[in-house]
Amino acid sequence: MTTKRVLVVDNEQYIQEVAKICLETVAGWEVLTASSGQEGIAQAVAWQPDVILLDVMMPDMDGITTFEKLQANSVTQEIPVILLTAKIQSADRRRYNQMGMISAIAKPFNPLELAKQIAEVLGWSWETPLSQ
To answer: Which pTM value belongs to this model?
Structure first.
């Protein structure tokens, strides 16, 4: 089984660190972080992650604009995007789905459940390295 590669794009350093530590420790995945939409797009092009976790509320370029730019780029348009957002009402979820986003995970998220949530959304088999 190949190691999954996850790109976390969030302007909050704390969120980046928590997500990175938990996904690496709990799931054994490779995690790269970016602090802005522009940096996230550059990382996605260069690194080709298996999934992008994308914050909605960021300065300069918000998550929605970042997603639209990822979709417009033939190199990144096939990469699944899961939003990390505090704005997760059912109307928001419908809007995100209509735009082509795979899912949304509520912030604050449970760090120990994050990898499982991602795996379930993407249909990845789920076995934690910790339980082997």
So the answer is: 0.91
Any idea where the domains of the chain sit in the sequence? Answer: 5-122
11 pLDDT above the threshold of 90:
yes
Give ∠ CA 104-49-57 in degrees, rounded to 5. 40
Instruction: Encode pLDDT of 29-67 as tens digits.
Output: 999 999 999 999 999 999 999 999 999 999 999 999 999
Q: Which residue has the tokens 């790269």?
A: 32
**CA 50/CA 65 separation, integer angstroms:** 20
Give the architecture (CATH level 2) of 5-122: 3-Layer(aba) Sandwich (3.40)
- What is the amino acid identity at position 108? P
Q: Could you give the CA distance from residue 117 to residue 132 in angstroms, rounded to a whole number? A: 19
- For residue 5, list its beta bridge partners: 30
pLDDT higher than 60, residue 1: no
